[in-house]
Amino acid sequence: MEFLVGIIAIVSIFIGLPWLIFHYVTKWKTAPRITQEDEKLLDEMHILARRLEDRLNTVERIVAADNPDWKPGLPSASSSDYEITRRN
């Protein structure tokens, strides 16, 4: 019984593991690459997100100017995390 366990362990280490690694390396190399069109779309979405964030900040400033007791709603993270995220 111990002999059979030893053979299974050796076979899995020297045959199974390299096969598994080469299988996923091949899958990784044949995976679809990001195209120029995809990059352009991502850039446009990033620009749009920045514009929307600027608009939201403008609306918050206007509301805060009209109503001094109003405080802008922050995300669920702490305000220091929010400020760090907004700057990046």
Automatic annotation (TrEMBL):
GO biological process per UniProt: phage shock; regulation of DNA-templated transcription
Keywords, alphabetical: Membrane, Transmembrane, Transmembrane helix
Region Disordered, annotated ranges: 68-88
Transmembrane segments: 6-25
NCBIfam families, per the entry: phageshock_pspB
Protein name (record): Envelope stress response membrane protein PspB
Organism field: Sphingomonas alpina
